[in-house]
Write a structure and sequence with these properties.
The longest helix is centred in the C-terminal third of the chain and has 14 residues. Strands 1-3-2 form a 3-stranded antiparallel sheet. α1 packs across α4 and α2 crosses α3. The chain is built from 4 helices and 3 strands. It is globular. Helices cover about 50% and strands about 15% of the residues. With about 80 residues, it is of the alpha+beta class.
């Protein structure tokens, strides 16, 4: 899936407090891995292996091979809108 870096960050910023922890717990992964995912692996200790960034407008294009975290974030946003 492709989206702009700006779109990815906007989704993260809209998440209710505690969402990163919830995603990490539900997927049994470290919270830092979730944070790295939303920063396209650019500002964490390690890179997320399935995220690729190509330069361009709005922060460039982010290609996500695995959209599990993104789908969970969208589900949380949908729940909070209800």
């Amino acid at each position: 899936m492709n989206l702009t870096f700006e779109e990815l960050r906007e989704i993260k910023h809209k998440l209710p407090s505690g969402s990163v922890k919830r995603i990490a717990k539900e997927l049994n992964i470290d919270e830092q891995e979730v944070r790295n995912y939303f920063s396209a692996g650019l500002n964490g200790k390690g890179r997320v292996s399935d995220v690729y960034v190509e330069p361009g407008p709005k922060g460039g294009i982010v290609h996500l091979e695995d959209t599990t975290i993104l789908n969970m974030a969208r589900r949380i946003l949908s729940e909070s809108a209800s």
